[in-house]
Structure prediction request, 651 residues.
Amino acid sequence: MKKTFNINEKGYYGEFGGAYIPEMLYPNVEELRQNYLKIMADASFQEEFHALLKDYVGRPSPLYFAKRLSEKYNTKIYLKREDLNHTGAHKVNNTIGQILMAQRLGKTRVIAETGAGQHGVATATVCALMGIECIVYMGEIDIARQAPNVARMKMLGAKVVPATSGSKTLKDATNEAIRDWINNPVDTHYIIGSVVGPHPYPDMVARFQAVVSEEIKKQLLEKEGTENPNYLIACVGGGSNAAGTYYHYLDNEDVKIIAVEAAGKGVDSGESAATSVLGKEGIIHGSKTLLMQTKDGQITEPYSISAGLDYPGVGPMHAHLYKTKRAEFIAITDDGAMKAGMQLSKLEGIIPAIETSHALAIFEHKTFEPNDIVVVNLSGRGDKDLQNYIEYFNL
Amino acid sequence: MNRINKKLKEEKKLLSIYFSAGYPNLDDTETIIKNLEKSGVDMIEIGLPFSDPLADGPTIQKSSTTALKNGMTSDLLFKQLEDIRESVSIPLIIMGYFNPILQYGVEAFCKKCQEVGIDGLIIPDLPVDVYSEQYKSTFEKYGLINIFLITPQTSEKRIRFIDSVSNGFIYMVSSASTTGAKTGFGDDQKLYFERISNMDLNNPQIVGFGIFNNETFAQATQYAKGAIIGSAFIKHLTKDGTENLNDFVSSILSDN
Prediction:
C-alpha cells in the first residue's frame, strides 16, 4: 500500500482521529459519516459548491507574489489571499460546503461554535444565504472581547448563545454546541469550524478547505512553471487553513510543510497555545489527538493573543504530521506575530489577521534559499484585530 | 460473581445513585457512599470529575468543576476508596470520561479499580467498537463490567451489538438529552421503554437521565430493572449536605 499522510478508511491519521463520542451523538455522527463522501461526490453538489465559491465567496483567491517581502528575506514569497474571501478569511470555504451538506441531509437548524467569532460569522452568513435557523455558541469571555463579530452575527440573523461553563472560551463553546446537538439529534446539523471533532469532521472540513491547495497548484504552475513550491506555510490552531493549504501536497514529500503554532508569551511561560510541543495524546471533542492537559487528564486553557489559535487541541491530521515529522512545527510568540503583522502592513499594504501574522513571522526564524518558492496562506484579514493592534502598538 | 450481576438477580427494582467524587467537599466520598448504602440504595456510581463533561447538563458540570477545584484526582479517589470494602457491600461503579482514564493508563486504572473493589465502569465517550477491539480483555482481566449507553435514537442493530458486548446491564438514556435536562416522561418515553423491553435483551436495562422523584422512578422501572438518579441527588447534596440522605432516598422509593 502506498504510504499516505491522509486519513484511512477507519477515520484515523496514523494513531490520531477516530470518533470518541457519547452514544447520544452516535446517530448524528454516523449519519454524517455514511453520507458525506457520497454527497460530496455528487455532481450537483460540486456544481453548487463551486458556483457559490466563485460568485459568492469570490474564488479563486489570488496567489500574490509579495515582491517587497521577498526582497527583504531574499527568497520568493507567495501569499495565498484567503483574506480576500467574503467574510474575510478561509473559514467560509468550509461553511459553504457544510450548509450544502446540511440541506442535503434534510436538516433545518444549524449550530456552530466560535472563538474569535470568524467561524460564527461565516456560519451565520451561509445560514442567512440559505434561510436556515442558526445558533452560535460563544464563550462569555469571547463575547465580551469580540463585540463587532457578535454584532455581525446578529445582523445576519443568528442567535448568539453565551457559553458560561468552564473557562468560558472556545473549548467551552464547543462543549455547549455538542450538548445542543445531543439535545437536538434529528433536525440539527453541527457546523464545526475546524479540522477537529469526531470523524468524519476532520476529513470533511479538510476536503472543503482543500480548494486552497487545488488553486495553489494551478496558480503556481502559471507563475512559476511548477505546481510544487519548496515550502508551504500556515498557522495552526485547530488547523483548518493549514489542512487546506497542505491537502493536495500531503503525500508529495518534495514539498516541505511548516506549521506555525502560537507560543503566546513563550512556550515555557505557562501562557501558550503550542499544542504540539506542550500537548500529550488524549481525547478532546471526540477526537484522539495531541492536547494540552494536566497529568491527570484534565484539559487546560491555552493562551495566545490571537483568539483563533487559542485551542487546547489540534486537528488529528496535524498531530500525525507532527508525530511523523512530515511537517516542521514552529512556535511564534505574541510579540513575534505582532511585529510580522505590522511589517506586512508596511511592506505590502496588507493588514493580516493576528492568526496569519504568526505564519508570517516564520521569516525571522528560518532562512530560505533565494530560489525557494515559499507559499504562505494569508488566512485572514486584520480588520477584526484592529483593537488588538491599536493597543499593542499604541496606534 | 461480580456484585453487579448478583444485585441484578435480586427480585426488586434497583435504585442507583450518581454523585461527583469530591463534591460538595473533597473528603465526602466515603461518607456519601456509606450513607447511601444505609439509606437502602442498591448501587452507586462514583463520578470521576472531568474538565469537559460533554454529556452532562449544568448540575453535574458544576459539581465536576467544584470537585476539580477542591483537588479531586484519580489517585486521590482511589486512595479515598482504599478501605471502602471493609464497610460497604453494594456494587460500586466509576463513571468518568475517557481522557483521565487514558492518562492514568487504561490497564493501571482497571487494576486499581479491582484493588479497591470497584465492580464496573461507565465511560460515555469510549465507543463500544473501540472498547471491544482494544480494551475488553483488559477490563475482563480485572473483573470489571463495562456499561454501555443506548438512547431512543440507537438503532435496533446497534442495541443488539451493544447487548452482545455487555455482561452486566444496559444504561438506557431516557431521552435525547444531556443529564438533568428534561422534566417528567411523556408518551415518547413510554413507547421507547416498551420497545426496548420487548426486545428481550440478554442484559437487563437500567434507565438514567431525567429521573428525579418517585413518579419518574416508578415510570422508568415499570419497564426496566432499575433507574439511576444523578442531577437531582446532587441538587440535594448542594442544599442539604451529606448527612441526611435517607430523606432523599425514601422520597424516591415511597409508594414503591
Remarks:
- Chain A has two domains: 13-53+91-205, 59-89+210-393.
- The CA atoms of residues 115 and 156 of chain A lie 17 Å apart.
- The longest strand of chain A covers residues 256-264.
- Chain A touches chain B at residues 18-24, 26-27, 165-166, 171-172, 175, 178-179, 182-186, 280-286, 293, 295-300 (CB under 8 Å).
